[in-house]
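Weekly modeling sync, notes
Attendees: S.R. (lead), two postdocs, one rotation student

Agenda item 3: backlog of single-chain predictions. S.R. asked that every request posted to the team notebook include the full sequence so nobody has to chase files. The rotation student volunteered to paste the first one in as an example of the format we agreed on. Action items at the bottom.

Example entry:
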Amino acid sequence: MNSKLILKTIFLLSVIIKLEAQGIQTIRGRVVDQDAEGILIGATIRVLNSDLLLGTITDVNGEFRIDNVPLGRNTLVITYIGYEDKIIPNLLVTAAKEVILNIGLQESIENLEAVVVTAKQNPAEVLNEMALISARSFSVEETQRYSGALNDPARMVANFAGVASNAEGNNDIVVRGNSPRGILWRLEGMEIPNPNHFANEGATGGPINALNSNMLSDSDFMTGAFSPEYGNALSGVFDMKFKKGNNEQKEYTASASLLGLDFAAEGPFKKGRRGSYIANYRYSSLQLLSDIGIFDFGGVPKYQDLSYNISVPINKKHHISSFGLGGISSIAVDDEEDDGTPTFRGEQKAYLGISGISHTFFINDKSFMRNTITTSVDGTLENGNLPDGEGNFFETGNIDIDRATFRWSGMYNHKINAKHKIEAGIIVSHKRYKTAARELNFEMNVMETVLEDDGNANIIQGFTSWKYRMNESLTLISGLHYLHFTLNGSNAFEPRTGLRWDLNKRQALTFGVGVHSKVESISTYLAKQTREDGTTFIPNRSLKPTKATHYVIGYQHMLNPNTQLKVEAYYQHLFDVPIEDVPGSTFSLLNETEGFVNETLVKEGTGRNYGLEFTLERYFAKGFYYLTTLSLYQSQYTAQDGVERSTAFNGNYVANFLAGKEFRMGKPEKNKVVFFNTKMALIGGSRYTPIDLEASRELGSEVRQDNRPFSSRGDDIFTLNIAIGTRRNKNRTTREFKIDVSNVTNNQGIVNEYYLEATERIERSPQLTFFPNLIYSIKF
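Predicted structure, as returned to the notebook:
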């Protein structure tokens, strides 16, 4: 017996020494009930595929800690009596940072004596269990891994089925043929303004996202038939989460790329306490080079942003968190011809600020309440000038919009039992605004005021949701969302339901239907028109929110533990769409991406989108992954003339193929990995209204042939992205260097066309050119 014990001890010591030579790290976190968020004491967590039997159980606080976890990709299995097992596959463990997890388990509804629970493995499973269809979670690691994503969640989701990206370079996304204006951005459960730098009025995208991947936790993205809690959204929802800082030790991340310089810090406020902080600051690389005089040219994009998240657990019943995001950006443009002839001069400035505080009160192990308050400010200042041919410029327009919003959200969550859960909430948004805009009337050659107002308005929303698990195979989500807009007293009642039927352990059918609505940007309601006598009036103040009914049916099949096939078909009926109140007009707000209009609008327009989507995905396993998607769709609208036409976003198809591979280099103790990622995309050509060249020359400004809306089409867009890099773990640091090249072939497909007043010619806008981004990061 003694000799056997000695041999076992020697073996264990040899394994530990081997692991230490290869590098080790800690995985820790908390295990909770998925529905009630109550802690689970005694849950078992095991690390698979390790030389040592690594595992532990949760303590009286529901927390766990596993030391000596080997670096690289690891898989966890979490089990608890009476709950469905859960697998977290291919968790990336590095030398620099502990892995901290918050794991939710779902209670089994079968009799405990009879149930045999099988571990479920689906890395794309959404965090919000009330979202059964047209939803996908994504991780920070995916945002950083996918070639061409540029650490931007909006660019990353453009790889998913049903989503088309902006070929000219902005991160605007078209979801199932809808305008990007229909997107809802949420952060920590609260609606936020457009979180992009250089954001134009009314837009939901921009060139660079202020939400930095260093701050993000796993988040959800929805493309249709949203669950009842999501309101003021028409096409898609980003439900973003900040990660919590390490509450035991300080950790840092520094990175440099052609897009910006970043520094992030996280750690405990005081050792032994459970509170933590994390913060990230970024500064434009090009702005820095310009500031120190290395180069100076017109159009340097200048921006910086700061974000933070503070977590303070008071005790087992109370938890307080505070979060924030802020950014400023500006660019001055001086465009000219190759011979130096000036063509345009303009400037844009934008700012964004969000701060919030949230309090969660765990009433008991079945119920909790969460109250969140946020304040946000955002605005834009723009002006444009054209040359007069004599060396001077004349102003063609300017806009100055400032907004401030105070929001309160109160939500109650109660788990009745393993079969039933209810949620109910209220969201109150108080908006203050100050708006001004002037445009040059080229026919009269006078500047006209098209926007000027100072006031406030409220949006009041309420929702209730019921989750009913009929048995282990059938889950029903139903509920109602309500929206009230005080500016004009309009209301929207939005019933919704979703159903998931697990045919067996590998296959499932899903179905969803729901009504959704969205309030337009405040400038749309306040835009002014000028009468013939010179007086002004506001024609669109009484517009109701645009609405849509979504129908979705889906099929999912886990072909093997790492590969999933997913098919969804959908139909969307859009109604109460703002269209121009002129007989024979072809104008509809469904075709707008940004800005505002001062035409007289009525809510008599309609639209419809329908399509079929395919996804075949191998989740990262054994150093390899791939994702291929195909989206076939139609997007059509009907305006005042009664003719159904293609919208501006009817590209008809999007195809994506992504793949990546990691290779270990050298001896295991070197902990060096070389990785390769690529993306190929083919996007149907965008549609636009052709320009009337003669009319444009006569007026001195661009004139489109409005009787032929979106009858012209750009080229189909092909893009090839490639990223190659290395990652090295050594002495509690992780270093990564990556070259990420977008549009490797420099394909220059035509996206749109515009009239250049200075030369009186039609110019064409190509897709984003060849763009290499070098990224170096160090974590310690």
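Discussion: group reviewed the output briefly. DSSP finds six helices and 45 strands in the chain.
Action items: rotation student to repeat for the remaining queue; S.R. to check formatting next week.
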